[in-house]
C-alpha cells in the first residue's frame, strides 16, 4: 500500500479530534489545503494529466467534507470522528495493492457506518437497519476474505495484479460477489431499501456516496469487461426500475433509484473499453452530485422519515427549494439538457458503439419506466394539495433553516448539474486523463 501525505494528514486530524476540540472551520481549511496540494503535486509526463488514484481520492475527500458540514455540530463529535474513519478507509482503499489490505479498509469503512446508523439507540428502526447492514456486510466481508485466502493458496500471493490476470476462478468470483454486495448491485441489493429507510439523513448521505466511490474505484481496476458483471447490470436495471414504482417512502425510492444508477455504471464498466469506463465514471460523478443535492433539500425541508405525500408541503415552505428539487429529479430522470441526460447519453452511446445492443435497449426501457416515478415526484411537489396533517404540522413545528454553508454547497452542486452541457470539459477532462492512466 502506498501512503501519501494527505492520508497521513487525515489520520493526524482523526487522532487530534479524539483528544482536542477540532472545529469544523479548521477542518475545512485543512481539507482545502490538502486538495490544493494534491492537485499541485500531480506528476505525469505531460504535467497536467491527473492519474486515476488521485482523482478518486479528491472525489472522496470532497464528498467527505460535504458530509461533515451537513452535521450541525460546530465542534467534532463522535459522529464526525467516525465519518473521518470512513473517509480515511475510502482513500486508503484506492491506494491498496494487496487483497488483505483491501479487506481491512472495507472493514474499517463498514464498521464505522454500522456504528453511525445505530447511534440513535432509542429508535427501533435505527437498530434494525444497523443490524441488517452489519450482518450482510459481515457475510460479504467473509466472502472477500475467503476469496483472498484462495488466491494466496493458488498463486502464493495476495497482490491485486495476480487477481487481474486470472480468468473465472473461484477466488475471483467470490471477490466479485463480495464487492457487488458492497455496491448493492442486484441480485445482492436486498439490504439496501431497509438500511436506507432506517438511517438518518446525515448517515444516508455518507452511506450512499463514499462506499460506492471507493469500491467502484477498485472495481474498475479489477473487473473490466467481466461477463458476470453484465448479469448484475441487467438485474440492477430491471429490479431498480420495477421496485420503485409502488414505493410511498422517499428513502426507499432513493434506494431503488441508486440500484438503477448502479446498473448504468456497471454497464459502462462492462464495456471494457476506454469510452465505456469513462462514461461509467461520469455517470457515477453526476449521480453522486445529484444524490447529495437531493438529500440536502430533503434534510432542509421535511423530517427523517419522509413519505412522498410530504413533498407537497415543499411549495408552501420554500419555492426555491421546490424548484431545486424539481431540477434535480428531472436530472436523475435523464431530461435534457441536465447532467443526468448527459451521463445516460454517454453510457448508451458507448454501449451501442461496442454492439451491446440488448443491454442498450433494456437500459432505455428501464430509464423510461424509472422516468415515470421521477416525474410523479415533481407532480406531487408542484400540483398536489397539502394534506390536513401537513398543514397542522407546519403550524405547530418550526420550519428548518438551511445553514449558509449548506446553501452554498447546494447552489454549487445545482449549478454543476444544470450547466454541465454548457462546459462539459470541467468534468470530462480530469476523468478523461484519470481513466486514460488505467490503460
TrEMBL record:
- E.C. no: 7.1.1.2
Which ranges does the record mark as transmembrane?
6-22, 29-46, 52-68, 75-94, 100-118, 130-153, 173-192, 204-222, 228-246, 253-274, 280-302, 314-336, 356-375, 407-428
Give the membrane topology, semicolon-separated if more than one.
Answer: Multi-pass membrane protein
State the Pfam families in the record.
Proton_antipo_M
Keyword Transmembrane helix present in the record's keywords: the answer is yes
Q: Which UniProt key words apply to this protein?
A: Membrane, Mitochondrion, Oxidoreductase, Transmembrane, Transmembrane helix
The NADH:quinone oxidoreductase/Mrp antiporter transmembrane domain sits at 97-368
Q: What is this protein called?
A: NADH:ubiquinone reductase (H(+)-translocating)
What is the scientific name of the source organism? Aurelia aurita
The gene name on file is nad2
Amino acid at each position: 500500500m502506498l501512503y501519501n501525505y494527505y492520508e497521513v494528514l487525515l489520520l493526524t486530524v482523526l487522532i487530534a479530534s479524539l483528544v482536542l476540540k477540532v472545529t469544523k472551520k479548521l477542518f475545512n481549511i485543512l481539507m482545502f489545503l490538502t486538495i490544493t496540494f494534491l492537485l499541485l503535486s500531480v506528476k505525469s509526463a505531460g504535467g497536467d494529466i491527473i492519474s486515476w488514484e488521485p482523482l478518486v481520492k479528491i472525489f472522496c475527500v470532497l464528498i467527505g467534507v460535504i458530509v461533515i458540514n451537513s452535521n450541525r455540530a460546530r465542534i467534532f463529535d463522535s459522529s464526525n470522528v467516525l465519518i473521518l474513519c470512513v473517509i480515511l478507509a475510502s482513500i486508503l482503499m484506492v491506494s491498496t495493492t494487496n487483497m488483505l489490505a483491501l479487506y481491512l479498509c472495507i472493514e474499517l469503512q463498514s464498521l464505522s457506518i454500522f456504528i453511525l446508523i445505530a447511534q440513535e439507540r432509542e429508535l427501533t428502526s435505527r437498530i434494525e437497519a444497523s443490524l441488517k447492514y452489519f450482518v450482510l456486510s459481515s457475510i460479504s466481508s467473509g466472502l472477500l476474505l475467503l476469496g483472498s485466502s484462495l488466491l494466496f493458496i493458488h498463486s502464493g500471493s495476495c497482490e491485486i495484479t495476480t487477481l487481474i490476470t486470472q480468468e473465472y476462478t473461484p477466488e475471483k468470483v467470490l471477490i466479485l460477489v463480495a464487492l457487488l454486495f458492497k455496491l448493492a448491485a442486484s441480485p445482492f441489493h436486498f439490504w439496501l431499501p431497509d438500511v436506507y429507510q432506517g438511517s438518518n439523513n446525515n448517515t444516508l448521505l455518507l452511506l450512499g456516496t463514499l462506499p460506492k466511490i471507493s469500491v467502484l474505484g477498485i472495481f474498475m481496476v479489477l473487473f473490466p469487461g467481466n461477463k458476470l458483471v453484465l448479469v448484475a447490470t441487467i438485474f440492477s436495471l430491471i429490479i431498480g426500475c420495477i421496485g420503485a414504482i409502488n414505493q410511498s417512502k422517499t428513502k426507499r425510492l432513493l434506494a431503488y433509484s441508486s440500484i438503477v444508477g448502479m446498473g448504468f455504471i456497471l454497464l459502462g464498466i462492462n464495456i471494457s473499453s476506454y469510452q465505456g469506463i469513462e462514461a461509467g465514471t461520469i455517470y457515477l460523478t453526476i449521480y453522486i452530485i445529484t444524490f447529495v443535492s437531493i438529500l440536502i433539500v430533503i434534510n432542509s425541508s421535511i423530517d427523517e422519515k419522509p413519505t412522498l405525500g410530504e413533498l407537497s408541503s415543499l411549495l408552501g415552505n420554500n419555492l426555491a427549494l421546490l424548484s431545486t428539487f424539481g431540477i434535480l429529479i428531472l436530472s436523475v430522470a435523464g431530461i435534457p439538457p441536465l447532467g443526468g441526460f448527459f451521463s445516460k447519453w454517454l453510457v448508451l452511446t458507448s454501449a451501442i458503439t461496442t454492439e451491446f445492443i440488448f443491454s442498450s435497449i433494456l437500459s432505455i426501457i428501464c430509464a423510461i419506466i424509472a422516468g415515470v416515478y421521477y416525474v410523479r415526484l415533481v407532480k406531487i411537489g408542484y400540483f398536489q394539495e397539502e394534506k390536513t396533517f401537513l398543514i397542522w404540522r407546519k403550524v405547530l413545528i418550526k420550519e428548518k433553516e438551511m445553514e449558509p454553508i449548506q446553501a452554498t454547497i447546494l447552489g454549487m452542486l445545482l449549478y454543476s448539474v444544470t450547466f454541465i452541457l454548457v462546459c462539459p470539459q470541467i468534468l470530462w477532462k480530469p476523468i478523461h486523463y484519470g481513466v486514460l492512466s488505467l490503460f
